[in-house]
C-alpha cells in the first residue's frame, strides 16, 4: 500500500481538491549533480529543478521556494571549502552545533557563513525567502565573520566558480560583525534577539536581497522565530 506510481500520484494531488504540497530537497544545493561542486556531489538534482526531474511535476506548478541555510557553513567529506576554519573556531562550531554526518557519523567540517556560496544557490533556485537555522550556535563568539567576496589572483570574481581548480585557489574577503555573547535560545520574536543578532540577520538579507522568514535558535520545535 506504500508503493504507488509517483507521477500519477502527484498528478492527482495537483488536480484534486486544493491543497498545499511541500517538497524537500534531499541534499544541499552544492551537492546537486549538475550545479554542485563536481565531482564531490550526489547522484541527483537537489536544487529546485529536482521537483520536476524527481517527481514529474510541471514547472508552472512550483510556487514559493524557501532556502534553508545554517548561520555558518558546513561540509561533510572532501571538497573545496573556502571559508573553512581549521582552528579553534571550527572546533567550537563543530562541538556546539553537534556537526556529524547523518549517515556516516563523520565530523562535519565547519567555517564562517559563505554568502558568495549562498548567493550562487539563490541564482539557481530563486529563493522566495530564507530559513536561517542554528543562530544560537554563534552565541559565544565575540566577533563573527561572513564571507562576502572571492578573489582570484588578487582580483575580485563576481561569481561562484564551477571549476574546482579555480575554486581551490580563491581567497575570501570577510565582513566582520560584532557577536552578542549571550544566549538566544529563549527568543521567540525578532525583538527578543540581541541587537547584534538582529543586525546579523539583516546583513544576510541585505547581501542576498532575500527576506529571512524563519530563524532557528535551538533544538526544540518551539525554538523558531517567524518574522512574517
From TrEMBL:
Coiled coil feature spans: none
Cofactor: Mg(2+)
Keywords tagged on the record: GTP-binding, Ligase, Magnesium, Metal-binding, Nucleotide-binding, Purine biosynthesis
One annotated GO molecular function: GTP binding
InterPro entries per the UniProt record, alphabetical: Adenylosuccinate_synth_dom1, Adenylosuccinate_synth_dom3, Adenylosuccinate_synthetase, P-loop_NTPase
Gene Ontology biological process terms from the UniProt entry: 'de novo' AMP biosynthetic process; IMP metabolic process
GO cellular component: cytoplasm
Subunit and interaction comment: Homodimer.
HAMAP family per record: Adenylosucc_synth
Protein name as annotated: Adenylosuccinate synthase
Species of the source: Micrurus lemniscatus lemniscatus
Amino acid at each position: 500500500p506504500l508503493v504507488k506510481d509517483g507521477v500519477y500520484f502527484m498528478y492527482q494531488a495537483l488536480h484534486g481538491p486544493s491543497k498545499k504540497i511541500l517538497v524537500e530537497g534531499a541534499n544541499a544545493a552544492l551537492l546537486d549533480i549538475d550545479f554542485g561542486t563536481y565531482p564531490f556531489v550526489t547522484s541527483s538534482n537537489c536544487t529546485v529543478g529536482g521537483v520536476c526531474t524527481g517527481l514529474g511535476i510541471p514547472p508552472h506548478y512550483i510556487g514559493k521556494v524557501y532556502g534553508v541555510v545554517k548561520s555558518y557553513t558546513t561540509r561533510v567529506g572532501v571538497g573545496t571549502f573556502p571559508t573553512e576554519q581549521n582552528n579553534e573556531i571550527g572546533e567550537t562550531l563543530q562541538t556546539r552545533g553537534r556537526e556529524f554526518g547523518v549517515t556516516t557519523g563523520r565530523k562535519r567540517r565547519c567555517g564562517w557563513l559563505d554568502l558568495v556560496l549562498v548567493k550562487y544557490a539563490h541564482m539557481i533556485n530563486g529563493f522566495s525567502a530564507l530559513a536561517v537555522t542554528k543562530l544560537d550556535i554563534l552565541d559565544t563568539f565575540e566577533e563573527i565573520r561572513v564571507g562576502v567576496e572571492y578573489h582570484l589572483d588578487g582580483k575580485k570574481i563576481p561569481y561562484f566558480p564551477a571549476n574546482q581548480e579555480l575554486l581551490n585557489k580563491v581567497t575570501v574577503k570577510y565582513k566582520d560583525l560584532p557577536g552578542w555573547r549571550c544566549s538566544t535560545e529563549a527568543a521567540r520574536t525578532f525583538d527578543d534577539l540581541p541587537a547584534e543578532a538582529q543586525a546579523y540577520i539583516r546583513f544576510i538579507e541585505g547581501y542576498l536581497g532575500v527576506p529571512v522568514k524563519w530563524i532557528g535558535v535551538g533544538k526544540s520545535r518551539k525554538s523558531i522565530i517567524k518574522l512574517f
